[in-house]
């Protein structure tokens, strides 16, 4: 019988994405791996990973986010160098080809400024991933909400909470997979939030 207090889960995992947690349960992220969180924000998805002997790196366009994540690393994983966390755009990642075992990108790609920008960001995530490595992305799409969203131009939509987002669809994801030669590790999983937005998790192997 386990007697672990449920409250320790929050202390350990923070606000980790549930589908990323699923990848942990499946054993796809292991001790010693080199992992990049691209668009890491304040680090909710790497809080646990930093403490699990994973070589965590992070980039974000916001210097404030990078300051916060460096502080988090200092507190939780003092052996992780602060230089692992840098301000950068996903379009131009400051890393060599094939550096990472795992690349995460959660809630970033729908901020793309154009389809070209979206594709360039995905291409960069792919470039820095090792052959055999896992790319885990979560982004807003039109899946399950076809015809119900306010379309502006091309793949840009006015979201019900105000902003204009770039929304991919299944055809674009399939096209990217073919272009990259990616192997799907999971079926696409999409959560519909109040019939207002759709968040899709895309997990592939290089
Ligand atoms: C909604 S937050 C998500 C943060 C984190 N991935 C998470 O899931 O909590 C989006 C983050 O992406 C960053 N971002 C947006 N566009 C970016 C880009 N082109 N390059 C790098 N970071 C970007 C923002 O600065 C912000 O911190």
Main features:
206 residues, alpha/beta, Rossmann fold, three-stranded antiparallel beta sheet
Describe what you observe in this structure.
By secondary structure, the protein is an alpha/beta fold. The protein has a single domain (12-205), classed as Rossmann fold, CATH 3.40.50.150. Helix content is 28%, strand content 29%. The chain is built from 6 helices and 11 strands. The strands form 2 sheets. Strands 1, 2, 3, 4, 5, 9, 10 and 11 form an 8-stranded mixed sheet that branches. A 3-stranded antiparallel sheet has the order 6-7-8, with no helix packed on it. Strand 1, helix 3 (47-51) and strand 2 form a beta-alpha-beta unit. The longest helix has 14 residues, at 63-76. It is globular. The model has no long low-confidence stretch (mean pLDDT 96). The chain binds S-adenosylmethionine (SAM). S-adenosylmethionine is lined by residues 39-41, 44-45, 60-62, 65, 89-90, 106-108, 111. The site of S-adenosylmethionine has 15 residues, from loops. Keywords: Methyltransferase, S-adenosyl-L-methionine, Transferase. This is Class I SAM-dependent methyltransferase. Pfam families: Methyltransf_11 (PF08241). It is an enzyme of class 2 (transferase). It comes from Pontibacter ruber.
Layout of secondary structure:
Blueprint (H helix, E strand, L loop, with lengths): L6 H7 L4 H8 L8 E5 L8 H5 L3 E6 L2 H14 L8 E3 L12 E7 L8 H13 L1 E13 L8 E4 L2 E3 L5 E3 L3 H11 L2 E2 L4 E5 L3 E9 L1
Parallel strand pairs: 1-2, 1-4, 2-3, 4-5
Antiparallel strand pairs: 5-11, 6-7, 7-8, 9-11, 10-11
């Amino acid at each position: 019988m386990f007697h672990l207090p449920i409250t320790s889960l929050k202390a350990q995992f923070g606000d980790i994405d549930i589908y990323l947690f699923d990848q942990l349960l499946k054993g796809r992220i292991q001790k010693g791996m080199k992992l990049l969180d691209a668009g890491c924000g304040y680090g909710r998805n790497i809080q646990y990973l930093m403490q699990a002997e994973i070589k965590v790196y992070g980039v974000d366009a916001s210097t404030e986010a990078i300051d916060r994540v460096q502080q988090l690393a200092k507190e939780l994983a003092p052996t992780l160098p602060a230089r692992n966390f840098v301000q950068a755009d996903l379009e131009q990642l400051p890393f060599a080809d094939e550096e990472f075992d795992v690349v995460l990108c959660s809630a970033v790609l729908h901020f793309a400024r154009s389809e070209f920008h979206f594709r360039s960001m995905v291409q960069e995530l792919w470039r820095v991933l090792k052959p055999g490595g896992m790319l885990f992305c979560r982004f807003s799409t039109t899946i399950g909400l076809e015809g119900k969203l306010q379309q502006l131009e091309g793949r840009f939509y006015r979201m019900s909470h105000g902003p204009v987002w770039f929304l991919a669809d299944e055809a674009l994801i399939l096209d990217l997979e073919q272009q990259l030669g990616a192997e799907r590790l999971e079926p696409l999983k999409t959560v519909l939030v109040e019939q207002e937005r759709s968040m899709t998790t895309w997990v592939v192997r290089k």
